From TrEMBL:
Keywords noted in UniProt: DNA-binding, Plasmid
Superkingdom classification of source: Bacteria
Positions of the HTH tetR-type domain: 1-35
Name recorded for this polypeptide: HTH tetR-type domain-containing protein
Coiled-coil segments on the chain, per record: none
InterPro entries: Homeodomain-like_sf (IPR009057), HTH-type_Tx_Regulator (IPR050624), HTH_TetR (IPR001647)
UniProt entry tagged with the keyword S-adenosyl-L-methionine: no
Database matches in PROSITE patterns: HTH_TETR_2 (PS50977)
Length: 157
């Protein structure tokens, strides 16, 4: 499917990649690099709520642009016999985004949140829900409104 989509023969695709997993890892790396660049463009001098708002808004825009890649990665992650690949993908994501996670935990501490680690898990779970909603009929969910409802947890509004 990948060779067909790229309009090259399977043989040519395997001249550049040794396996399907290597193709997948290359696609994942490219996707995560783009997402890292997006995160790096967000000012670190913002309050937690403003930082999260900008992160969510930019991520939603990114997910629209990268929808096909997102769907491909999601489908691959949940394929039978892909446990090793899925674990490797999760480890890669956690390693690459660890600095952002630490920055968020610091912001949560400043907000007086008792357990910043648990709060980060809560935010990541919400974030994953946003990502998965992009894999479906994305017009059903008013994502920007959902983000504002989520952020009201920190603003008290």
């Amino acid at each position: 499917m990948i060779a067909k989509h790229a309009k090259v023969s399977k043989g040519l695709a395997y001249n550049y990649f040794k396996s399907k997993n290597q193709i997948f890892e290359s696609i994942l790396n490219d996707y995560l690099s783009k997402q890292e660049a997006l995160n790096a463009g967000i000012s670190t001098n913002q309050a937690a709520v403003d930082y999260l708002r900008e992160l969510f808004q930019k991520t939603l825009e990114f997910l629209v642009q990268e929808r096909k890649t997102l769907i491909l990665l999601t489908i691959c992650k949940f394929q039978p016999n892909s446990l090793i690949l899925s674990k490797k993908m999760t480890e890669n994501i956690e390693k690459r985004f660890a600095p952002y996670h630490e920055a968020m935990k610091d912001r949560f501490k400043k907000l007086g949140i008792a357990d910043p680690e648990l709060e980060l898990l809560y935010v990541k779970t919400f974030f994953h829900g946003l990502i998965m909603s992009q894999c479906t009929d994305s017009d059903i969910y008013p994502k920007h409104q959902i983000v504002e409802i989520f952020l009201s947890r920190y603003t008290g509004k």
